[in-house]
Amino acid sequence: MTYLAKPCLHHPSLATNKVGYTRRDYEGKVSTLCAGCGHDSISAAIVQACWELDIEPYRVAKLSGIGCSSKTPDYFLGAAHGFNTVHGRMPSVLTGANLANRELLYLGISGDGDSASIGLGQFAHAMRRGVRMVYIVENNGVYGLTKGQFSATADNGSKSKKGVVNHENPVDLVSMALQLGASYVARGFSGDKAQLVPLIKGAMGHAGAAFLDIISPCVAFNNHAGSTRSYDYVREHNEAVNRLDVITPRHPIAVDYAPGEVVEVIQHDGHALRLRKLHDGYDPTDRLAAMNHVQTHQARGEIVTGLLYVDAEASDLHEALQTSHMPLNTLGRDELCPGADALARINAGLGCQGS
Amino acid sequence: MNRIEAVNDFVVKFANVNGSGSSSANELFAKAILQMGVPVSPRNIFPSNIQGLPTWYEVRVSEAGYLGRRGGVDLMVAMNPQTWDADVAEIEPGGYLFHDNTRPLPASKFRHDIHVIGMPLTELCNAAYADPRQRQLFKNIAYVGALSVLLQIDPSVFDTLFAQQYKGKEKLLDANLLALRLGIDYARTHLTQPLGLRVQRSDRVGRQIFVDGNSAAALGCVYGGATVAAWYPITPSSSVAEAFQRYCARFRIDPASGQHNYAIVQAEDEIASIGMVVGAGWNGARAFTATSGPGVSLMTEFIGLAYFAEIPATIINVQRGGPSTGMPTRTQQADILSCAYASHGDTRHVLLFPEDPHECFEHAATALDLADRLQTPVFVMTDLDIGMNQRLCQPFAWDPARDYDRGKVMSAAQLEAGADFGRYKDVDGDGIPWRTLPGTHPSLGSYFTRGTTRDAYARYSERGPDYVANVQRLLKKFATAAELVPAPVQRPAAQSTPLGVIYFGSTSPAMHEALDVLGEAGIHLDALRLRAFPFSTAVADFLAEHEQVFVVEQNRDAQMHSLLVNELALDPARLVRVLHYDGTPITARFITDAITRRLQLGTPPRQPQAKDHHHGECTA
Ligand SMILES: Cc1ncc(C[n+]2csc(CCOP(=O)(O)OP(=O)(O)O)c2C)c(N)n1
Ligand code: SF4
Ligand SMILES: [Mg+2]
C-alpha cells in the first residue's frame, strides 16, 4: 500500500522517522490499567521500539489473550489491527493469522496466567512450531484481572497480598521456550526500559519464534514485601547477562566497546545485535549453556535478564511448509481453484464403468 | 428348503478380522459389481482398533439404485471364527453362507434353513504361497474370485480393475491375478451347485462416481479456495485433512516455483485447530478444520468468539456416535443441537447437511463462501456413514464461471474514498457489517477485535443499548443466512396428502427407498430434505401445509425435531419422531416400519428394544 499518502495530521514540528510517522502515531487508546502497572511501561517500550525501527504501525498485527496484560494492545499502535482473543489461546490465533499473511509483523501479548496456566499448551506448541512472531509475556506472578490469585509463575514460598503462601513450583517460561526451540529468548524487566527496548527491537528483527518474558509488577496485587515479583525484589535480584544494542543497517555502529566484551550477531533482516557482556563466558548463541545458566542462577534466587539465546539463522513455519511467498490471503480463484477440466478428470478417475 | 432367488438385488456381508488385508479385496468385489453396471453401496463396519478385532463389510447390490443400508444378509462370507455364531444367525432364511472349510466344523455350527458353500481357502493358499503373509492376504482375493463365479460376474471386469489399480506395479498385479484365478478355477470345478443370487449386466451406474464423503469434502475445500487447514486427528474425520493434503499436493503447488498455495497444520488439539482457523479467517484467508463430536466440544469457546466477533470459520463435523467417546466408529446425527447452539450465551450457527459425497464436495465449497459472506462459523454436518464409506453419487460439478464470494471486505481504495467504516454497523439492512483486513491502510480502517461487547464502531462498550443493538443485528444476520443457505429439496408424493416427512443428511437413500415402498403400499407422504439451518420459509410453509409431519433422524433425543419446534415455534404434537440411533446407518425397512406402525395404530413412540432384529434398532 505504499502508493497511499502517509497520514499528516500532526503538528509539522513533531519529528518524523524514516517512514514518515511521529512517535505519537505509535500510540493507542488511553490505558485503563492501574497507575504504576508494569504493563504500561511495556506498552511504552513497544511504542519506542517500533518507532525506532521505522515500522509502519499498520503493518503490525497485535494479538492477545485475556487479562490486564492482554488488554494492552489497545493502548499502542492504534493504526494496527488488534485481536483480543480468548484466555490462553492467543498463540493459535496468531499462528493462523500468520499463515494467512506472512508479510505482517505479529506481536503476541500475553500474561503469565494466560501463557503459563490456561495457555501453557498453546505457548509450548507455538514455540515448537517456530511461528515468526514476537511473543511477550507480561509476567507479574498473579492474575491481575481476576484480582490477585497466584499464577503458575509465582515462586514457591512467595506470599500473596492477602498473606497466602504459594506451595506450588513455578513454571519458568524462559526455560521452556529454550527447551522447545524458540530461536530468540530474552528476559526483561518493565522497570528497565533501557534494557527492554533493544530486547524488543531485536525480537522484531528476528526471523523465527521470539519469546520475551518481561517481569512486570502488578502494583495492585503483587508489589508487597514477600512477593518475588515486586519492583523492589526484582531490582535487588536482577542479574543482567548482557546489554543489547540493536543497530539497523542504516546506522553505522556508533558505540565502541572494549574488545573482547562484545558479541555481534547479525540477524536475518540485517540488523546487528551488539551485546555488551556483563557475565564472563556467557554465550547467547549456545542454547545448552543458556539453559544451564538460567537454571543455575535461578536456583540462587537471581532473576537473569538480557538476551539469553539467539539463533541468527532461524527459520520459521512458512519455510517449513514452503508456503507461497505471496500471502495466502491474496490468492484468488485463479491460483486456488483447479477448475472444471481437472474436476472432469477426477470424475473420470472415480467413475465405475469401463476405463 | 427355501432359497433366496434374486438378480441384482441382494446383500452380501463379509465378516473379517481387521488388519488381515480384507478391505481391499472386499472393495474389489464391490467395484466388480459396479463394473457390471449394477449399483452397489458398501459399508465398512469397523472397530476402534488397528488389528485383531472383527470388522464387517456389507455390500448392498441394488438394480433400483437404493443405496441405503437394507438390513438383513442374503450371503454371508464368514471369515472370522470369533463372530461366527452371530454372523450365521444374521443370514436371512433361505440365504447363503460361504466359508473356509479347511478345518471341518461340527454340524451344530450351522443352521438348517440356509445354504452352505464351503471352500478350503486356507489349504489352497497354503499350497499356492510360501510366504505366511501372502497366504493370509490372498485368501481374500481368492474368495472374491470364487464369489465372482458363483454370482456370475463377468471375469473381464477384473482385467479393467486390476489394470487401474496396479498400473506400474506389475509384480503385485501378477500375484493378485494368481489368487483371483485360484478362486475362479476352484469355484468352476468344485462349486457347481448354483447360487440363487446373480449379478446381471445393467446400465444403472452410468456416469456416477464412487467416492467417500471425506475425500469429497476435502476436494470441495480445495475448489472452494481454502488455503489454511488446521486439524487434530479424530475418527471419522481424519481422512478429510489427509485427503486435503493429497489434493493440495496435486493441485496447489506452483509448478514453476514449488511454492505451496496452502498451509496445513496438525495442531496440538482441537482448541488450537479452531484457534488457527479463526486467526486465518480474521486475516482474510479461507480456513477450515475437520473434526467430530469430541472436537466440537473442545472448540465451543472459540466458536462463540467467532460468532460474536464475526469471523469466518468452516468446520466439517463428521459425526459419530456420542456422547463422550461414545461409538467412535459408528454413525449418528447427534451433534445437531450442540453445533446449532455451540458456546455459552445466545449463539446460533449455520449448519449444512450434505446427503452424499456429491454434496459433501458442494457444501464444503459453499460453506467457505457462506462463512466469508456471513462472517460467522459454518458447520458442514456430515457423518461417518457418508464420510468414510464409498458411495455412488452424481459426478462433482463446478461451474467454470463460479468465483469466490469474499463477502464485505472493505478495500484500501474504499477507505480512501471516504467510506464510513463501522465494523459492527449494518449499512444495508442485511445485518452483515463490513470488515477490513489487517494491514489494509496506513491510517484508516483499523479496529480492535474482541469477544467483549462493543458499539457499531468496535469500541468497547458495556452499555445496554449498544449490546442489544448488536445482538439484534446478529439475529437479522441469521435471518439473512436463512435465505443464503442451500434450499431444502422437496419430493412431492404421487397424490395430495396431509402427511409429510422431514429428513436430512445420510438418511437420504434409506428415506427415498422407504418413500417408494410406502407409496406402493398406498401410504403417501410429501417429503422435504433439509439441507441447512437456519430454516428457510419453505420449511415453515411445508410444516404449515401438512397435518402430521414425521421427522426422521439418527439420534436418541430427536434433536432436529427440537430445533424445528424451537426455531419455528411449532406445536410439537404435529411432529412425529422417527429415531434411529444404534450406531448403524438407518434403513428403509426401519423407516417404513415406524411410519406404517404409527399410521395404523396411532400408537405413541415405542422405546428401543435391544432384541430388535438388526443391532437393536428402535422405532418411533
Ligand atoms: C476460560 C476462561 N477462564 C477464566 C477467565 C477469567 N480470567 C480472565 S483474566 C484471567 C487471568 C489473567 O492473568 P494473567 O494472564 O496473568 O494477566 P494479568 O491480568 O495478570 O496481566 C482469568 C483467570 C477467562 N476469561 N476465561
Ligand atoms: S491489577 Fe495489576 S496487572 Fe492489572 S492493571 Fe492493576 S496493576 Fe496492572
Ligand atoms: Mg499476570
Give your account of this protein's structure.
The complex is a heterodimer of chains A (355) and B (620). Chain A has 355 residues and is an alpha/beta fold. Chain A has a single domain, classed as Thiamin diphosphate (ThDP)-binding fold, Pyr/PP domains (Rossmann fold, 3-Layer(aba) Sandwich). Chain A is 30% helix and 19% strand. Chain A has 12 helices and 13 strands. In chain A, the strands form 3 sheets. Chain A has an 8-stranded mixed beta sheet with strand order 2-1-3-4-8-7-13-9, sandwiched between helices. By secondary structure, chain B is of the alpha/beta class. Chain B has 4 domains: 193 residues, Pyruvate-ferredoxin oxidoreductase, PFOR, domain III (Pyruvate-ferredoxin Oxidoreductase, domain 3, 3-Layer(aba) Sandwich), CATH 3.40.920; 183 residues, Thiamin diphosphate (ThDP)-binding fold, Pyr/PP domains (Rossmann fold), CATH 3.40.50.970; 55 residues, no CATH class; 131 residues, 3-Layer(aba) Sandwich (Rossmann fold). In chain B, 38% of the residues lie in helices and 19% in strands. Chain B has 19 helices and 23 strands. In chain B, the strands form 5 sheets. A 7-stranded mixed beta sheet of chain B has the order 11-10-12-13-15-14-21, with helices on both faces. In chain B, strands 3-4-2-5-6-7 form a 6-stranded mixed beta sheet. Chain B is globular. At the A-B interface, strand 2, helix 3, helix 5, helix 10 and helix 11 of A face helix 1, helix 5, strand 9, helix 7 and strand 11 of B. The structure holds thiamine diphosphate, iron/sulfur cluster and magnesium ion. Thiamine diphosphate binds next to helix 2, helix 4 and strand 5 of chain A.
